Here is the input.
Amino acid sequence: MSSSVNDFISLKIRNISTLSIILVLTIHSQNIYNRITGFEPNNWNYFIQTFIYDGVSRIAVPLFFIISAFFYFGNDQNLFNSYFLIIGKKIKTILVPYIVISILSYVLFIIIQAIPYARLFFNNQLLIYNNFTEIFVTIFFKPLAYQLWFLRNLFLLFVIAPVILFLTKKIPYFYILFLLTSWVCLNDYIPFYILESLTFFSFGCYLKIHKFNFVNRIYISSCKLIWFYSILWIFLIASYILTDNTSIKRLSVIIGLICTWELFSTKYVNYFFKHRYMLMFSKFTFFIFLIHEPFLTIFIKSSFFLFSKSNFVSLILFFISPFIVSFFSILIGSLIKKQSPRIYEIITGGR
Here is the structure.
């Protein structure tokens, strides 16, 4: 590949990664389930939020795993020869941030629960009454900052990467087809998002080691092709919402991944990500990912408490919460990076 093609691919993947963080924030900004009850299903608020958070935004996690694997398997020979060295680096960049943020979020929840009025927002047993086993499991396996599950699964995938590489090289079509079929049919029955994580991490490995032809796929995207994928994607998401068929939902994710790649082959979409605000956002994407929960939940619950519960307030919060939490996350990250760069480096794994 020429340097210009490599630069374009790098830019494209970086921009897609930035988009994925935005989509993760929209998933966690939904407020028609879990955080507060009482909204009638199948109204305009329900449809809009579900279409975005449980439809469009569901491509975010597969994208993260595909991109992570694509870069990780850059040199499969080096992977075998330097396995323990690579895992050591992943401890610093993945496992340490996971543990640090998990502990900090646990401490933060204890502090919040100590405030009498704040206890009204918690339905489960207060953390102060947890025994050692419950504390250990919460911090290391079921973090309160629940977005950390991605780092937990990603680290485990790095640990078993040689096995994934072996299967992808020896029986690529059977292995990938088996995983994709299992993900479509069985994902809801496998805990901890293990199947989804393994499927798309393996798919990213397949794209890398089997030399997916990026050169021929970079510049051929046409408006007609993009429109076709976009309309099909919208149709599948709407069909899923109306039928509640999870197989349709999985298919919409696959079409969404293709559509996103085609969209980011256009100069107009990539130009948007050159805006100075997007460039600022992209510098702190990992820090935003690490700390946006529990602050996003706190902001949404507090807003409902202050402004009452209605479909209008619910939808407004859904759209503005990612921007507000991102702004304060960037502000906090900037201050820590400036005042205590070593602490910021530990938190973000040296990013």
